[in-house]
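**User:** My hope is that you can spare some time for a protein that puzzles me. I have put the entry right below:
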Amino acid sequence: MVEETTLHIKQLSTPGELLDAADRAFSALSTYLLGVSDMTSAVEAIAAPIAQHFLNGDPGEVESDLEGLWTTLFDTIQQIPHDHPWQDKLVLFVSAIAEHPPPSGPKCLIWGRSFSWANLPLFGSTFRERRANPVAVMSGRDYNETQDLSIDLPDSYKHEAILRQDWTRLNAFLARGNHLRSFGFDLWAIWAMREALEDPLLPVELHLNVPGSAVWIYYAGNQLFESDEIWEPGLGDGDPAKGGSLWDGERGFCRERWNLWRRRFQAVVEYVEVPQETRDFASKAVLEMKRIESSDSDPAPGNKTSSATVQSTTKPSYPL
């Protein structure tokens, strides 16, 4: 982890209908990160206006405030390197919000569900609007095997570099917070791994996606290794934990899928056409996975195989 240096965080552009909420959120987040205010004050600055909207019986304003909050949070995360201590400070901030008592006043439904800070309402939907991996975003480009994607990218690739950086930082934040009850975004780890490791990809695609999967190993590897959660296909949710073309086993976590990810990270390390920076991300992930495996003294529950005869645990729908 890098030392805690002060970063210059700026407020990014926000749709007009969310501007007031985004202004409040940015003020609360930035003063908290800089140590000007404490976490309790920052959380109250977010929660108090929403509580007032409840008293006024105005669910539309509640929804706008939530979207402004989470949009500003993700904008801020994308400005913080994955190994900077401010990432952990933001995880603690969101955890504190999740523990904040619910507002009093008339009952308010958000997307058909009773409002509770513990559910982090609209966190998931706001993130999913911007979670498209860099390869998906750049899919219209004509990539080929010979493109040079070294760290010193030519101007035509600057956008790809920003997408890759943002993707890595957002995934690092989710991984850092995954041990907290209020997060529980294991399924998003599956998505990151599937998109980077479970299909044959060109060097440029690996360069864009692998760092965002590697940080899940850095910051949540033990939890992924020990998990045996399964997401069975179902109406409404589709088949969220399905594998890519290289995986046709359990719809979730199991030791065999973990082993596939490690082998695929190792393949990236040995793929000389992938830029060294990305190979370094993969190498660190392989070393961490081997460390986790060597420290495992209890084969259960993480040693569950992908056999259909093994009883699985069904995971509820992913968050709003």
